[in-house]
């Protein structure tokens, strides 16, 4: 028997950065999803109509996905993550708590990025491409990935232990 905890792989994620306006693509996904749901609940739709609606939804989702560039990320080994924090200690007289808020997020992103982009590419992206809020979302993703926090989409209380009788 394999111990799942002992054999746990480093977590990965893809962080989406919007490149093109996705407004129409989102509407198309919503419309295709609605049409498929209606067919499924109607009870009298034939298999061909459902297959056609599924294909339309898949095309719409691809169109929406094509509006984004996805940054592939991989969590560091736990020791490397802790060592990186140690290399970027909080600054006195700042709001820094655990690490240097100016240097650590970028260093962590560079260490976790699997896109093959160079440091120079990232400096250009930070300076000319991403807004401050976009950078913050990207940094938050890479921190959550390495802190191994649970997915926010999991239902509240899903892992609570029930009292035994």
Structure explained in plain terms:
With 165 residues, the protein is mostly helical. Helices cover 52% and strands 8% of the residues. The chain has 6 helices and 2 strands, in the order βααβαααα. It has helices spanning 23-42, 47-65, 78-87, 104-112, 119-129, 132-147, and strands at residues 12-18, 68-74. The protein has a two-stranded antiparallel sheet. α1 packs antiparallel against α2. It is elongated and about 65 Å long.
Write the layout of secondary structure elements.
Blueprint lengths: L11 E7 L4 H20 L4 H19 L2 E7 L3 H10 L16 H9 L6 H11 L2 H16 L18
Antiparallel strand pairs: 1-2
What would the keywords be for this entry?
mainly alpha; 165 residues
Brief overview:
By secondary structure, the protein is mainly alpha-helical. It has 6 helices and 2 strands.
Large-scale geometry: elongated
Indicate the proportion of strand residues. Answer: 5-15%
Q: Report the order of strands and helices.
A: EHHEHHHH
Q: Give the number of helices.
A: 6
Considering DSSP H and I runs of 4 or more, what fraction of the residues is helical?
Answer: 40-55%
Radius of gyration: 21 Å
Going by helix content, strand content and strand pairing, the class is mainly alpha
- Side by side, the strands of the main sheet go 1-2
User: What is the rounded distance between the termini?
Assistant: 30 Å
Q: Count the strands?
A: 2
Major beta sheet, specifics? 2 strands, antiparallel
Poorly predicted spans: none
pLDDT averaged residue by residue: 91
